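Students often ask why inverse folding is considered easier than folding. One informal answer: many sequences map to the same fold, so there is more than one right answer. In these notes we will look at a single instance of the problem. The structure comes first.
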């Protein structure tokens, strides 16, 4: 008997704390034990100590708090890390003047005729320009090729030198799925590239494989510091897939990652062939990189007037509400979309469909309805990515069709992007952004996504959680609410970050809960979340993060055991 106990004794035990397990059968405990990277037992301190051997490491939590690691189901991890390490970045709340100063500073340190990329900028700035946008940017760096992303990553701003370098002039046709901003009188490009028109410049700004490797390493450390132990990469190219695969193979990833392979994107010339997707699925799958996922775009974003809505945008130059056609801005025709998703479903690929406008969301739901009739219940939980605006009539369809409402980005509380939404949609419709509570009441399965770095200054899940339960800006930086009546409680919100997120990755039996046999992915906090105000939750600092039983992050301020 003693030999049996010795062989099955835990590697480590945590006692005298509060453990939130997110396991309905055993929701709370005093501690837990792990063996070989998995949870061995959750229970009382006395129970756990009975199983210890002389080799077991015992940690006394002293009243501190353990919970499952969090999962972000919509983030552009490599994009965010490339931004942090290699681009100009001034933050979402920066002024035009601040961005221009940053570009000028970078230009002073980079040889002439080199590329400068970064951002972000806001579409609302353009209306205040007294000259063409390219000429405004010329003032900051006339001798460099400058290409800046807006807050949504759906629009680019180029200076004159960059336009010339890309060969964009008055004779350049608008590419399919994109538009070149032009002077209304002369037809000359004004420096703004919408949606797929960005391909004309992005081919000149391609990160090296070394940069991608650095980006994945940086991203992993950053996510661990926030308490993330898994995420869904919202869209990846072949090079990015390779970067994730290589990082996992060399042991620097330490995250559960579900990668949505890009079917169509802002940077692709067309659709990725199905045989290529299947090749990538096999080639880049590894222990922690899951590749049976695809991303496609149904529309754009509201501030750029490229999102597809059932109701017209507010009247403004270039926008004619009386001639509104809800389908005009759909990136894929409904019949074609249904055919595409039906094929992907039959191949075992889960589809995330980017849909900001309510017409785009309905198109995605309609497509899956066709899929279910054609293929039956495959078990794949296809997603509407963003789910920013969904018509009330469509709320029940998520449950009916077995689909996931991906709540991203964090626009359910006032933030720097809110004025851009109000400008084109009006205050009433903006208040209908991310109807989280209504979707829950309709039985929809929801998950949380930051969308970092698009429309998100950071990937901090605690800010998203705080805003979700208050619908206020957690730091008081912007007044008021966004959809106050859509606030939900902490108990309702946490599954979006844990159990339901793991389920959307197909890992519901692996992570997202602290239960015997599951991966020991958990975080240590100073105190329980329950009883804290939203403002306090937003300021949460993770003391430690564990992935598969290994400590992958320790805060510099964390007291040692």
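Output (designed amino acids):
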């Amino acid at each position: 008997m003693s030999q049996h106990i010795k062989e099955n004794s835990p590697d480590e035990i945590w006692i005298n704390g509060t453990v939130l397990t997110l396991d309905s059968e055993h929701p709370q405990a005093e501690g837990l034990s792990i063996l070989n990277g998995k949870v061995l037992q959750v229970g009382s301190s006395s129970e756990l100590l009975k199983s210890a051997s002389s080799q077991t490491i015992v940690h006394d939590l002293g009243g501190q708090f353990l919970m499952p690691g969090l999962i972000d189901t919509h983030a552009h991890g490599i994009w965010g890390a490339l931004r942090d390490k290699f681009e100009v970045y001034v933050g979402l709340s920066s002024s035009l003047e601040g961005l221009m100063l940053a570009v000028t500073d970078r230009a002073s340190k980079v040889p002439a005729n080199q590329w400068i990329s970064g951002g972000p900028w806001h579409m609302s700035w353009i209306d205040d320009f007294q000259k063409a946008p390219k000429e405004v940017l010329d003032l900051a760096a006339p001798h460099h090729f400058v290409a800046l992303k807006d807050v949504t990553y759906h629009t680019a701003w180029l200076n004159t030198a960059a336009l010339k370098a890309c060969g964009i002039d008055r004779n350049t046709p608008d590419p399919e799925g994109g538009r070149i901003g032009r002077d209304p009188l002369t037809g000359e490009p004004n420096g703004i590239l919408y949606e797929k028109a960005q391909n004309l410049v992005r081919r000149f700004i391609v990160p090296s494989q070394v940069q991608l490797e650095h980006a994945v390493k940086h991203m992993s450390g950053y996510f661990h510091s926030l308490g993330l132990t898994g995420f869904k990469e919202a869209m990846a190219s072949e090079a990015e897939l390779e970067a994730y695969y290589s990082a996992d193979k060399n042991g620097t990833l330490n995250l559960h990652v579900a990668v949505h392979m890009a079917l169509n994107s802002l940077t692709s010339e067309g659709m990725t062939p199905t045989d290529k997707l299947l090749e990538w699925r096999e080639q880049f799958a590894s222990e922690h990189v899951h590749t049976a996922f695809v991303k496609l775009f149904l529309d754009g974003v509201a501030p750029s007037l490229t999102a597809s809505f059932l109701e017209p945008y507010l009247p403004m130059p270039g926008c004619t509400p009386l001639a509104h056609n809800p389908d005009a801005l759909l990136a894929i025709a409904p019949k074609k979309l249904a055919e595409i998703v039906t094929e992907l479903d039959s191949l075992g690929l889960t589809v995330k469909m980017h849909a900001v406008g309510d017409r785009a969301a309905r198109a995605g739901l309609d497509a899956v309805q066709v899929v279910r009739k054609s293929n039956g219940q495959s078990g794949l939980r296809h997603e509407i990515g963003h789910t920013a605006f969904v018509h009330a009539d469509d709320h029940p369809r998520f449950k009916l069709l077995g689909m996931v409402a991906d709540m991203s980005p964090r626009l359910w509380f006032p933030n720097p992007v809110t004025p851009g939404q109000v400008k084109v949609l009006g205050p009433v419709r903006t208040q209908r952004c991310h109807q989280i509570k209504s979707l829950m009441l309709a039985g929809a399965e929801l998950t949380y996504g930051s969308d970092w770095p698009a429309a998100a200054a950071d990937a901090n899940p605690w800010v998203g959680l705080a805003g979700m339960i208050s619908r206020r800006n957690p730091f008081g930086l912007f007044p008021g609410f966004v959809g106050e009546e859509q606030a939900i409680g902490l108990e309702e919100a946490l599954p979006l970050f844990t159990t339901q997120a793991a389920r959307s990755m197909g890992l519901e039996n692996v992570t997202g809960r602290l239960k015997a046999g599951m991966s020991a992915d958990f975080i240590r906090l100073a105190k329980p979340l329950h009883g804290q105000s939203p403002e306090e939750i937003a300021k949460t600092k993770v003391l430690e993060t564990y992935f598969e039983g290994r400590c992958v992050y320790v805060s510099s301020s964390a007291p040692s055991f």
